Amino acid sequence: MSKGFFYMMTGDIWNKLYTEARKVQNGRVISPFIEAGGVAAAILTKAGNIYVGVCIDTASTLGMCAERNAIANMITNGEHQIDKVVAVMPDGQVGFPCGACREYMMQLDKDSGEIEILVDMESKKTVRLKELIPDWWGKSRFDLC
């Protein structure tokens, strides 16, 4: 049984995801051109695994958001279906994924609209990705597969 699955069963998954994101969140300067770790993210896959990532900000805008970094980690490890997402801002609060991350997640799987995103840690309020990107332009392409 995966650790993520255990935490889902015990009802403590949002705390676990938040904690895993905070473990890698370490704002730092990499070079005069790159800063990393101001924002961290953790995702829980449909298979019950947890992947994390941090934002990488560059002077030439070639960086990546924490959510996309976590997704890249997930894809590198052979998965592509997300169940839950937590993004932790520099002040420790959770936040919404940016538009680019929303689009990236929608393109992963025909059921990506069901991805649950934590938007308030204290109340554990969540939204589904489809609420943040309604009437998504690419939905019909999944019907062709």
In short:
With 145 residues, the chain is an alpha+beta fold.
CATH class: Alpha Beta
The CATH homology group name: Cytidine Deaminase, domain 2
Helix content: 25-40%
**Count, helices:** 6
Q: Measured on Cα atoms, how large is the radius of gyration?
A: 15 Å
Q: Overall mean pLDDT score? A: 93
Low-confidence stretches: none
H and E string:
HHEEEHEHEEHH
Euclidean distance between termini CA atoms: 31 Å
- Helix/strand/pairing category: alpha+beta
Strand content: 25-35%
- Number of structural domains: 1
Name the overall outline.
Answer: globular
Q: Would you tell me which CATH topology applies?
A: Cytidine Deaminase, domain 2
Q: How many strand units? A: 6
Give a quick account of the main beta sheet: strands, pairing sense, barrel closure: 6 strands, mixed
In the CATH hierarchy, what is the architecture at level 2?
3-Layer(aba) Sandwich
What can you tell me about this protein's structure?
The protein is an alpha+beta fold and 145 residues long. It has helices at residues 3-10, 13-24, 66-76, 99-106, 129-132, 139-143; strands at residues 28-31, 34-45, 50-58, 82-88, 116-120, 125-128. The protein has one domain (3-143): Cytidine Deaminase, domain 2 (3-Layer(aba) Sandwich), CATH 3.40.140. The chain has 6 helices and 6 strands. Strands 1, 2, 3, 4, 5 and 6 form a 6-stranded mixed sheet that branches. The radius of gyration is 15 Å and the shape is globular. The mean pLDDT is 93.
Supply the key terms.
single chain; 145 residues; alpha+beta; Cytidine Deaminase, domain 2; 6-stranded mixed sheet; 6 helices; 6 strands; 33% helix
